[in-house]
Structure prediction request, 752 residues.
Amino acid sequence: MAAASSERASTEEEPELEAAAKPEPDPWRGPGSVVKRDPEVKLQSPVSGLEPLSWSEDHRLSASSTSSISLLEIVCDLHGYGQDLVIHRTSIPVPERTCVLRVGPEKKVAEIKEIFANSKDPTVSQPFMLDRLLNPGALTPQRGFKYTSWSPLGCDSNGRCLLASLTLDNRLTIHGNLNRLQWTSLVNLTEVYGEMLEEKSYQLPGAEAPCGELEDLPEFQRRHRMQCPVRMEWSSVCTTQQVQTNNECKDVGTVLLAVLLENGDVAVWQFQLPFLGRDSIVSCNTIQSGVSAPSVLAWWEYEHSGRKMSGLIVGSSVGPVKILPVNLKAVKGYFTLRQPVVLWQETDQIPVHNIKCISLYHPYQKCSCSLVVAARGSYLFWCLLLISKAGLNVHNSHVTGLHSMPITSMTASRYGGAIYTSSADGSVKKLTPIFTDLAVMFEQELIRLPDGVAGRRAYGITTSPNGAYLALVTTEGLTNGLHPVSRSYRVQFVTLKTPDEAAAELLESSIQNLFKQADLVDLVRWKVLRDKRIPPMLQEELDEKVHTSGSTYLWRFKLFLFRVLYQSLQKAPSEARWKPSHKDSKVFIKEGGSASVSEEQMSEIIAWIEAVESHLTREHMKRVLGEVYLHTWITENTSIPTRGVCDFLMSDPTYEDRAARVLIGHIFKKMNKQTFPEYCSLCKEVLPFTDRRQAVCSNGHMWLRCVLSYQACQTLSYRRCLLQDSIARHPVPDGKDLQLPYCVGQPVLQTY
Prediction:
């Protein structure tokens, strides 16, 4: 394209800009890549649950405590001057009312509890009075969260992740962040499951038979144990076929939530996407695992010869681990095991604390394989599953000598297969799998934590989606062999990769999406802000790849670097922006400039930004016009300002894209001299298309333009890109508007 070549020539002469001030010392010059990132986040109450930290695919961190779940969203701020992490913090409080499981009519249950409590038989009264599950009012109720689990990306109405939480009093709830400041409870699955069991008289096919009447303590215990959640985990997004009224089949996205119950059953919930609440529940199937004293649950997902297989891994507090088949109908491309597979059968009384399943490629067998790792006491149990012509091959063993104390937390990187474990003494180890001909070995590495993190007591760890950061929830350790008088619980962040490694991964990434790699992007942003320049090697390689491939993803990465470079050369304001000034001045905004950077250099950076923005705008306008050309027979699509977009492209004399001009000619022929102008909703005047960012009518009313369709956003609610560089018009519920792909902005947007 001629336009691309002209912009290419301008970018080849981009000089490196460096500030006159002496740069700060590089924290990565020493051994290792572990550097502490500020700020630390102090929790308001002690942590609770076995795995208090969990990191979602949309870069939100949940920290469970006795009073609430603290939600920390890592925001890659384009407009900030500071080098610290930008964290947006919200919370979900613990419900005030204690959850009481439904086992029968309320009045009858109250009478039975009174009989059990006053029984003269100690084998009846003592187990009942000392069991919080059976008699939650007898003992002080436990407050806090037991476990949290994030759904895959794209499950809520905004295309983001849902959060499933389990309280210590057995309330399982799904939450959604429908706006930026508030979390909403969408459904109480404990309550729904209790209603389903009541309709079936607490008898499930193939399950444990009733132990008499409700007045008998064993039956009373059975009804509680069959609906008491232990753990829950989300599957990846599936595709089901739904029959329409015209007998056509439509593919509908669904997601599964597996809930492990205290009696060993597994309730598999199927939800239609986007999940809006109880009405989005498609089905609930209960599977008998046959595992006694279940403690942990994980999804096993394996891809072989283009076919995806799935199952559930269940671990026990007395030792055994097994995979259960999950049979689901009408799920497109879904396969499962024919029968359960036992991974570890010894009842050695070593509890299974955590399970992770990692998909890897076997370099010797030349096929994909599945690595299952489980924390058992101070050991790490591993099992390699490989499908060959002979069937399913299972190799297992234990890794010993990791920690001197039991493993308190374990996490695994989604890409690369690295496994991280921690113990109560604060030590963190990294295990990297190394394949042999038949099995696997693990290379062990002690993570040297930086000052301020080392020596603290660790309760939980988790890695960011792309392995750039490690988050730890810690408290003060021993001082001279003594415990501290008081403890403060903090969430701390350290890097696991250098900015150069993050930049290399971004350049070679197959994801082609900046938001999904925001943790890597934030590392590069930090490097540019510190050095006040783009690393020369990164800039050179990026220019080369942009010129050869023309990828929109690389153009957006380049635009991001230029914007961060511009911010790094700005002078930070001396006072907070929100703080009112006490001086009598009519100037409310102060223009800050850096004395060490000339106006010519700043103007040159602004020119680079405008050149890249112009290129991205033209390419996206072509895609919008292509959608309009293919769908002009639908009258609702005329709401797209087609004539304005065409005129905007044609008005630039330097734009000589032949394909775009041919497309515009075909559109003009189909429109047949019709213009379909936009009108201001306040004064009904025509909104001219003279700017890609905003529309201003003759009376001065200004409206921002949607980055997806270039319509004027004339509503109170709209969507903003999570990288904070574009907005989009909120889709109408009836779905009559042209739904364009989120291709210029990031694919996940938040409603305001």
The longest strand covers residues 249-261.
